[in-house]
Amino acid sequence: MIAQLTRFASVGLFATLLHVLVAMLVRNLLSLDVQASNFAGFLAAVSVSYFGHAEMTFKATGSHQQQMVRFGLLAVLGLLLSSGITYVICEVMDTSFVVAMAIVAVVVPSVTFLVSKYWVFAGDQSKVVYKDWIGVLFAIAFAGLYFAVYKDRPINHDTAWYLVATRNWLSGAQLYVDIVEVNPPLNFYLTVPVVFLAEWLSMSETNAQYLTLSILMAFSLVWVWNLLQQYSELDWGRQFLMLIAAAVAMAVPAVSSSGQREHLMVIFTMPYLFGHIVMQGAGTGKESVGRAAFAAIGICIKPHFVLIPIALTITEMFLKRSLKPVVSASNVTLFAIGGVYLVAAATLHPEYFTEILPIATSVYGAYRFNDATVIRLVVPAIPLLFLAASVLAVLYGRGRMAALPFAAVLAGCVIYFVQWTGFGYQAVPIHAFAIVGFMWLILQARLNWLLASVSALGLVACVSLAFQKGFYRNDLTESFLSILSAETPEPRIMVFSSSLAPSFPLVLEADAVWTSRYPALWLVPGAANGLRVENCEANSERCAKLNKIQSRTRTEIVDDFVGNSPNFLVFDNTPPFVFQPFNFIEFLEKDQRFTEAMNRYVVIEQDSRFTFWGLR
Questions:
Q1: How many domains, the chain?
Q2: Cβ burial, residue 121 (10 Å; 0-12/13-18/19+)
Q3: What pLDDT sits at residue 308?
Q4: 531 lies in some domain
Q5: From CA 44, how far away is CA 349, in angstroms rounded?
Q6: What pLDDT is recorded for position 39?
Q7: Is 266 part of a structural domain of the chain?
Q8: Domain that holds residue 561
Q9: Which residues contact 601 (CB under 8 A, 6 or more apart)?
Q10: Are 404 and 434 in contact (CB under 8 A)?
Q11: Which residues of the chain carry a pLDDT beneath 70?
Q12: Phi, psi of 614 (to 5 degrees)
């Protein structure tokens, strides 16, 4: 399908240029009116498009008489669709013509490609066409359902931070200087289309994020469906059940963490994983390059994610008794894209490598929950059940069917434990890949009832555990909003906490200005905890480094506080991840500028954890 899409785009681009050229020539040479000139260009473009798509894009073998009639009807449909979209966007919704054209540029070619592939040039294979359509329509319907369910719901604080920070970045803030973030830059770049989409469609950035996720899911699911149809050992019904499992894997484990980095990685890598599972020699061929390139976007979000292709490659080597998978086209593509990304990141954002990483290696280890929480949240029963199912699969001669999805689950476990923080969203890949693996085992032919039972139990466990988390909820946001709306009509917020939860999605919900360069004061716990336990007489160099980090943090916070003039302050009196009582006001009062600036504020409310200040 990727090759067809490329050919389709090439023919479409040529036809568009021909349309414009013919229309201009007719207008200038024959002096026809604009509508007649445009219609002449339209006829020329339609003629070229038909023969280009019939001979090059879809290599159709059907009757030209039948196909030309269908293509003519499709051309009229495209004209009506573009006109209808333009009318709704510009007249009904009173939005700009640029937005209408952007939507037309996406929707009309997409509809044209699908209708051309599955109807115009499908020949007489009507049964196959209808079955193909069901999978595509399911992917679109599932994406629409996902957006409908999540629309207007608050988004998790990590993703909310990226929305706010990317907006600030696009407004002129310098990444890793004016925005101090510990994670590498790709997620900011992936958030740029969301911010633009929100502006173009005049919707909230939260809803734009959900819409973007829905579109990515639909694209990924259509790709998975195309791969499943090439696997002859599963009948059509089982292929469709596997598609449903892929959809559930993309959505359910991340029910409370939509848009998180792990969630994005799962969406981007799903076709890549299915390519390994259902295709023989998944790492070779042109199509594997496309799957690897798409997966590389998700894998590059976090360096830990590289363990997934490593695990799949090792498994392929074991199954094939060969070293060839190491240098497969798929791995070469991943390596090349990863290398280009590293070079680009170092060139465009050198501060991340020279400033952020050295500090993060010194203090970020404190930014985690206790060991018991880390172990409990991963739910060891899931990988253990999958291991049991995989062993049974090997015993019953279905080793290959279980080995590859289990390799992805195992990689997800290693990724989770390597980070060792206890944040629940980091377990999303484990549950997502396990859902795919369990369903894959259940649907295999000649399954033993014991294998099916263990796999079904694991599948139910994965889905039910995810649903138990429920949708994201932030009680702090709800309580803060009531205080904020009563005190500050045009909020400019600064929150002094080592957690993101008090700050986001409060900023989005209140349509406020975030006045700090930090998402949360993530440097404080590591430095404060380190100075508390370190023997400074024996290790003066380490203490000097921690004191320097504290001093830098204090200076930058006060710079933002004085320079950006927030009118609503929140102080976290019991900041998480700090092992001792910590008072931010006492910490900041060592800078005289802070003390002088605080004279302009007064306490407006206080609870057991937070103190709220407003301008006098």
A1: 2
A2: buried
A3: 95
A4: yes
A5: 48
A6: 61
A7: no
A8: 475-615
A9: 569, 613, 614, 615, 616
A10: no
A11: 1-6, 16-24, 26-43, 60-66, 69, 80-102, 104-105, 108, 122-132, 280-285, 374, 376-401, 445-448, 467-468, 486-488
A12: -135, 165
